[in-house]
Amino acid sequence: xxxxxxxxxxxxxxxxxxxxxxxxxxxxxxxxxxxxxxxxxxxxxxxxxxxxxxxxxxxxxxxxxxxxxxxxxxxxxxxxxxxxxxxxxxxxxxxxxxxxxxxxxxxxxxxxxxxxxxxxxxxxxxxxxxxxxxxxxxxxxxxxxxxxxxxxxxxxxxxxxxxxxxxxxxxxxxxxxxxxxxxxxxxxxxxxxxxxxxxxxxxxxxxxxxxxxxxxxxxxxxx
Length: 223
What we know:
Distance between the termini: 88 Å
CATH superfamily of the largest domain: Immunoglobulins
Number of helices: 1
Structural class: mainly beta
Number of domains: 2
Radius of gyration: 29 Å
CATH architecture of the largest domain: Sandwich
């Protein structure tokens, strides 16, 4: 148990460190954000340099603040790095293909120093996470059917949609009869040369540069 003298000495030491921290961070930026780089579709690596010796215990840790720039959000998320001397950290669980702004701020106990410069970075593209929406199917005439759809909801694009793929199978055998690849501006197609009395299954997906998203459930066309 600390004696009153030891407690006083310890408190004075903490006050001295806090005062030094305030003086240093008031006169200069303690941390500089060197780089913010996406490493996949949901994570960004931050690299920084400290401009004060961490061995002097002037900096207890860093606050990492970041926000979704794509959504024009002014709400910052915050996480704490308690070992700033590593000068690197990976921020995970981010939204796919989304722009973020990052900056750092040093702290000692309840005191916070000057924020670093900021960096804006975009996470990588990924495959769509949902199939095309509002899919409708019908007959155009005795031997042709039509398919119409909308793009997946925007939050499921995960990149720039490059197009759609349509798979047509025989209803009784599920044998693939046709595969079509369409550009992103096409949201309807005519299926010709259908056989009277036959049943066909049609399903769709969308794709980005990263690859194909999930297919929709099959839709039946009864000719």
